[in-house]
Amino acid sequence: MIRAMFSAATGMIAQQTTIDTIANNMANVNTTGFKKSRVNFQDLLYETIKPPGGETASGNFIPEGIQIGHGVRPSSVAKLFTPGTLIQTGNELDLAIEGEGFFQVLLPDGSIAYTRDGSFRRSVNGELMTVDGYLMEPSITIPTDALQISISQGGVVSVLVPNSQTTTNVGTLDLVRFPNPSGLDARLGKNLLLETGASGSPVIDNPGLNGTGFVAQGFLENSNVQTVEEIINMVIAQRAYEANSKVIQAADEMLQLANNVRR
């Protein structure tokens, strides 16, 4: 009965992690480029009372042993990089990625971060940057007198300047893919991800080449969080939490009965 209490307690803690993850998903339902997370679980060590396959006194083998588990724990919280819905904005510096890939941005310490949030702006010098002021990598500068900005599906950035009938190429966007994007580090927030040993090394390519997605100008990628799905998962987690609390209550009542036994 004591074992049951501790096992059920691990179940309650695990479901709390699920609720925390669902809450973060729901909070970011309208965050540009956000990717939802999912909690994965694994069972804990087992106490072996009778090992399966053990030999009996008659020389036979026990087909099924007795092993009592000690509960559950979260093994990982994985980001799911399924595509989000593209929302048309009409803003010429809003970019979405149709397919795999990330934009690169330069952090103040000189390192590179990666994002699916393509809501870029122009600095006072015309450089493309995020809403937090991080410059796009490689740097692309738009002339301050540009009348029109065109970005092709292949990432070629062209501008139309005064007194010119043709557009001028000012640079090409690079996109980055990872062997395991779920291994990227999200600790910075701000829609930014960092490379880790689990994500693998970045593979840099032009949009549309070697499995990299295309760039859609005038669009933003919405979060891939499905509200109905998250509500269903929340109900399931809540009921599992409640069931584990009932197990603790039942074990407590059994202990109380045992304590009330009279000789």
Characterization of this structure:
Helix content is 22%, strand content 27%. By secondary structure, it is α+β, with helices and mostly antiparallel strands. The strands form 8 sheets. The chain has a 3-stranded antiparallel beta sheet, with no helix packed on it. Helix 1 packs antiparallel against helix 2. The longest helix has 33 residues, at 227-259. The protein is elongated, with a radius of gyration of 27 Å. The protein starts with a helix and ends with a helix.
Question: Strands, helices and their partners?
Answer:
Blueprint (H helix, E strand, L loop, with lengths): L1 H26 L9 E7 L2 E5 L15 E4 L2 E8 L6 E3 L6 E4 L4 E4 L5 E4 L5 E2 L5 E2 L5 E2 L11 E4 L4 E5 L7 E5 L2 E3 L25 E3 L8 E4 L1 E3 L5 H33 L4
Antiparallel strand pairs: 1-4, 2-3, 5-18, 6-17, 7-8, 7-11, 9-10, 12-13, 13-14, 15-16
Helix pairs in contact: 1-2
What are the salient characteristics of this protein?
263 residues; alpha+beta; 2 helices; 18 strands; 27% strand; elongated
Strand content: 25-35%
Read across the widest sheet, the strand sequence of neighbours is 8-7-11
Q: Radius of gyration from the CA trace?
A: 27 Å
> What's the total helix number?
2
Helix content: 10-25%
Q: Count the beta strands.
A: 18
Decide which structural class fits the backbone: alpha+beta
- N→C terminal distance: 21 Å
Shape designation:
elongated
- Oligomerization state of this entry? single chain
In round numbers, the mean pLDDT is 92
Short description:
With 263 residues, the protein is of the alpha+beta class. 22% of the residues lie in helices and 27% in strands.
